[in-house]
Amino acid sequence: MLELSDVHAGYGPVPILFGVNLRVGAGEVVALMGRNGMGKTTTLRTMFGVLPATRGAVTFNGQSLVGMPIHKIARLGLGIVPEGRGIFVKLTVRENLIATARPGPWTVERVLDLFPRLGERAGNMGSQLSGGEQQMLAIGRALLTNPRLLVLDEATEGLAPTVRALIWDALSRVKSEGQSILVIDKFLAPLTRIADRFYMMEKGVAAWTGTSADVVARPDVVARFLGV
Amino acid sequence: MNPMFRNTILVALAAIFAAAPWALDEFSLNLVTRMLIFGIAAMGVDLLVGFAGLVPLGHAAFLGLGAYAAGILTDMGLESAFVVWPLAIMVGALGAAIIGGLSLRSSGLYFIMITLAFAQMIYYVFQSLRAYGGDDGFALTRNTFAGLIDPYDSRAFYFLTLAITLVIFLLLLRVVASPFGVALRAARDNEARLAAVGLPAFGYRLVAFILSGALCAFAGVLLANLTGYITPGYGSWPQSGELLMMVLLGTAGTIWGGLLGAAIFVALSEVLSEVSDHWMFYLGLLIVLRVLLAGGETTKLLKRLDPRRRADG
Amino acid sequence: MKSYLLGVAASVALSGAAMAQEPFRIGFLSTMSGVSGVLGQDQRRGFDLALEHLGGKIGGLPVQVVEADDKFSAADAVQQMSRLIDREKIQVITGLVASNVLMAIAKPALAKGALLISANAGPSPLAGPGCNPNLFVMSFQNDQWSTGVGKYLSDKGYKRVYFMGMNFQAGWDHTKAAIRNFTGEKVAEVYTPVDQLDFSAELSQLRAAKPDAVYAFYVGGQAIAFVKQFAQAKLDIPLFGGNGLSDPTLFEGQGDAAIGLTLGTHWSAALENPVNKKFVDGFVKAHGRLPSETAANGYDDVLMLDAAVKESGGKTTPDALREALRKVKYASIRGDWHFNTNQFPVQNIYMEQVERKPDGKLGLKFLGIAAKDVQDPYVGECKMAK
Amino acid sequence: MTFSLFVEQVFNGLQLGMLLFLVAVGVTLVFGVMNLVNLSQGALVMMGGFLLATATKATSSYWLGLPLGIAALIVIAMLIELLVLRRLYARPHIDQVLATFGLMLMFNEGAVMIWGRDPVFMAIPAALEGSVTLLPGVAYPIYRLAVTIFAGALGVALHFLISRTRLGMLIRAGADKREMIQLLGVDIAFLYLMVFCLGGVLGGVAGMLLGPISAVTTGMGDPILILALVCVVIGGLGSVGGAFVAAMLVGMCDTFGRVLLPQALGAGTGQAIANMIVYLVMAAILIWRPAGLASR
Lengths: 228, 313, 386, 296
Description:
heterotetramer, A: alpha/beta, Rossmann fold, six-stranded mixed beta sheet, 28% strand, B: mainly alpha, ABC transporter involved in vitamin B12 uptake, BtuC, two-stranded antiparallel ribbon, 14 helices, 2 strands, globular
């Protein structure tokens, strides 16, 4: 459903992406990995139209996203959980969920069922939440836009192991509902359990792609793209 | 700019300014004098807008402070410009120190609004000075120069203003190129970095504010002398807006832009008001178009003309 | 530019028969733009109507009017004065609707030898020590209207009067003159800021003081706001003022609230004389409403200049006109009046009242003379060097 | 000061405060959500007066004129946003100040070109004529009371809009994280348009309410704009609640200052300080809290 081919982009005169090719199919969970500064977040920003692609094509269900305003891209069915979570601090938890909600299978009740913790804090302001709660809220908020593709950028960064486990559990449940997901994360082990396919980014291109089984079977790939 | 080209322009400008008194009738000469006077004020405002990145919407207050101080001192029997003018400028600087000290605790939008509010306060002080005509204002006898200059000779007054403007212009060029000017711009671009090397942005900004207030006060003194009459209108908030327009019409952040902008503004309002009683509409339209069509040119220029950045690449 | 065009048009019209005659070039410096532009614009309407009635000539001379806009600012006024005198080489300047503008240009213009004829502003400093042989104010001195009103209030037997005014020179002049000429008790003397538009606090205070009558000096937008709010407060106290409190330019804005206002004035649209009738009828026909006091001054100004130029035998130099103006006699729209030694008018002050006319529009009823041959109180301080 | 005069002045102060609040809300919302200085709000106040006067005259009915006038205001506010302000959001503050200052000049003189220099009349609607007795001996004009109540009701409605509706949530979210709400599918350009129209219309409505009390003339909005800006600064930029508190404070200080200060300090000094009281209060508050009352 999502296809990037030969995408170039950058900040002003500084190029970051040098021809990214990437594809996410319907119902698929795809992981995007790589060391810091290799262009993962930039790829997402280009997909969402925040950064203009200087070359190449981004299509979603056959429709070109290049040059489209950010909100239209989102409305086509791309839901994002951004790096740093981007919670609205002056809104309550419930308001964060419903402010940008669009109709579809995901409802507030189902999200609260997925993350019961949010239900307990429904009346609290966004600014009063812990990091883990903010992350749950960001995921719930993205789900409530009822995206065809959910995109997560570093959804477990800086969280305690128990909270991380909660998030991974929730994502597997989401996957089991048939939701397509594109996920950026640093933790390989849980990703191999949930992702169907992997892309490894290096120096602005998606240098390697393969299934979860391939990743597990190829320690050399892991060492090359993720090792320190 | 090519130095050869620049020098040619400067020489040509100097020739034009020197020849003006003989080429122009008294009306046009007074108009040019007004341009220079507002140029001084606009250069002062530009110091804040273009170099400190602060937008004051109340600098007419210092224009008014200078004019009122000069008028009141003259009324008290001090006639010599050598006494009255420095005192009046000091009054402006003192006012700027107080207002600046209070306003500079904020920045951005707050700074705009707070300077406006303080200027309104001073405006109402002028308006309530019953001994000095209240809202109607009062007449000022032009200050004397110990017999060196005839204050009522338009040419003499023009050359005096021209000389003052030139001196201020050259001084300001040195000021913005000095370590002080560099620190001021550094504070504009990255306050945290400046603070990290132990330089408080507040101090630099306050000095810039006082300097710009003093320049506006000087312009007020000159304008009061040229006009021979002082009203609270000198300190009104639309006047503050006009000072900003002058900075924009020139080019913010260049010092000479203040002079150019003031000249354009004075000429523009003169021409427009001769063409139509509705000149304010067209003035407003021109300002809006200028802002919209400039397309952020001001900011781009700010960056391009910043010597530090230019040195970087 | 506009004035140049007018000038060129006038000069073109002159070629031919009038070629031999030098046109009378006159500067019209007034507030033509901005919020106060209504004053200068109406003054100019009156001025132009008189020119039309005189066949475009003053004292038999073709006229070239050069207009300049003072923008209600002292600094701009001085600059425009310089344009008229230094560039246009005009020596006779009239118009001058605003006190602050007249005050600002008087000294420099007189120093250049120009003749100033104010057709509206009459600030007290220029009537006293600041008087000058080349400065004529043909309209009124600020104190005159309210001198009449103060006397009228005393004559009508009001005991306790509440005085209010705008906080600037004209406000003080007018209000203090009313107080000076009123023999009863002054309940209060309140001045409000010139840009204040809500008088609720002052009106509540006024209600609590329970005066017999109120004198108020307000002009322009403040007059509209004050009169409306006074009516809305349902105070049932008669309201008096000068001509500025309600004039035909304000009728539309004030509506019924103006009905019953009693005003002191040096001229009224209701004055019965043939010249005034011709003026008022002509103005109503041209502009669809009664003329304001500034329009009347503009009109009367031209009539006076016409007589003065005839008196001087067609000479329009400041010296010739000055001497002629000192002796001038003409049929004025306001009846007989003459220049005092300070060259401000000595004239009757009339009372008029705003009423609803049978045609449904607001109009003015003439109540009579409040005071005869009123002169300003500053004339004694004028030491005119002849 | 007698008790009845005190009560009356409280009502006067409330009414002034409410009107200032309506004008200040537009400025503070635009500050908060779009980070834009809008000096053209005063022009919208004036346009409100002129439009209602014209619409009332054309339809011979205040109650028909009111919705028509508001509709026209919405169109004007939209045009301002679409043609000018939209291009200024990413600009430095000086560009915003000057462009909106230019707009103010254009509207003030444009009103002269359309309606002429003579002030335009606006009557109190017949249903709101007359006065009510608040206390024995204190008759208060019904219209002023109605203005206070109506403006207060608008304030409550606005509070409801901002705190309870989706639009309100988006306004608060947009003031917080501009890019994030676009990433979640919200058309920010449309949201900004809505916010500006909302603020502009509230300012215009203030002008409409003011019309029958004061003069409908060019520049009538300018002094109100300045006072509203003071409220915005005292209240804290972007804070609607702060603007409300500040507007009440300014309304009361101004009303009571004009009565009490001349009594306490003598006519001359008292009146001079009464003119400045609002600015003195502002200076005092800013020395205490440089970012306004709403800041923590």
